[in-house]
Amino acid sequence: MEIIDSHQHFWKLGAFPYDWLTPQSGVLYHDFLPIGFADVLRSNDVHQSVAVQASLSTEETNWMLQLAEENKYIAGVVGWIDLLATDFEEQLQEIVKDRKLVGLRHLVQDEPDPEWLLQSRVVKSIRLLAKYDLTYDILIFPSHLKSAGRLAAECPETRLVIDHLAKPAIKSGEIKEWKTRLKKLTAYPNVYCKLSGLVTEADVDNWNADDLRPYVDAALELFGPKRILFGSDYPVCLLAASYSQVLDAYKGLVSHLSDNEVQDIFASNARLFYKLRGNE
After folding, report:
1. Helix (H, G, I), strand (E, B) or coil at 34
2. Which residues, in sequence order, are CB contacts of 109 under 8 Å at separation 6+?
């Protein structure tokens, strides 16, 4: 089976601002670079990956794009440009020249305004991404799902993906309200979701695949296997599990699906959503 990891990160401490990454971050508080990740992918028979921004920095985006050119397994980069910038399109026109830029993301979950996504300039910028055939990753909590739905309605031509299923409260077991809110997004065909980041929403010291199952089953019920992408969220996942444990858990949770449906989730959907090319 071909596997494309649609959500992983690189970072280099001190090179770019990572306000969320501190010495208290434990295992995460050191550099994560392509040479080490290549070994992780190889040992898990994963063929390509999509590197996703971790810093609110265009400098980090340019660095990741350079890494992608140097490491062919990095099939695409989801970068960052300030969506509120008055010269957003000019910045976009410059960076879009790099063919491995596939989309943008902002750390919306850290914004104090619950309707940050609905600011007119933000909506205009995300709508513009469609003009350049770029995507937008939505990093939010369940409380932001209503805003995400309104954004989807405002940007019907832009391909959107909900990272980490909007981080449901797996540890506490809350599911009803999250599922109700997530369901409303299925009305928009431009919205996908990522089967990623769930182990760190569970009890990081004592989780198992069955803890994730109700949420994975809900995503499959709502979005179907054609609108779900696998992502490891490496190295953030290391707070709870190894790469192999994450991959094995997701494989097991979708094992009841057909071979074609499993292949969609683990590779085909990522290729289509981000319009990835093969290893070159």
Report:
1. helix
2. 139, 140, 141, 144, 167
Q: What's the mean pLDDT in 137-152?
A: 97
| Non-local CB neighbours of 189 within 8 Å, separated by 6+ positions | none
Instruction: Judge whether 130 and 155 are in contact, CB under 8 Å.
Output: yes
Residue recorded with tokens 């198992």: 208
E-assigned strands of the chain? 4-8, 48-52, 74-79, 101-106, 135-138, 160-162, 191-195, 228-230
Q: Is residue 278's pLDDT more than 80?
A: no
Residue 221 is predicted with a pLDDT of 98
Planar angle of CA 52, 249, 42, nearest 5 degrees: 55
Q: Global pTM?
A: 0.96
Which helix (H) or strand (E) segment holds residue 61: the answer is helix 58-70
CA 250/CA 234 separation, integer angstroms: 14
Q: Which of 148, 122, 116, 104 is nearest to 274 (CA)?
A: 104
Using CA atoms, how far apart are residues 18 and 257, in angstroms rounded to an integer? 39
CA separation for the pair 100, 276 (Å, rounded): 8
Instruction: Order across the sheet with 228-230: list the strands.
Output: 4-8, 48-52, 74-79, 101-106, 135-138, 160-162, 191-195, 228-230
- What's the whole-number mean pLDDT along residues 212-226? 98
Task: Sort 38 into a burial class: Cβ within 10 Å, 0-12 / 13-18 / 19+.
Answer: middle
- Please count the residues of the chain: 280
- Side chain identity, residue 43: S
Q: How many C-beta atoms surround the C-beta of residue 92 within 10 A?
A: 19
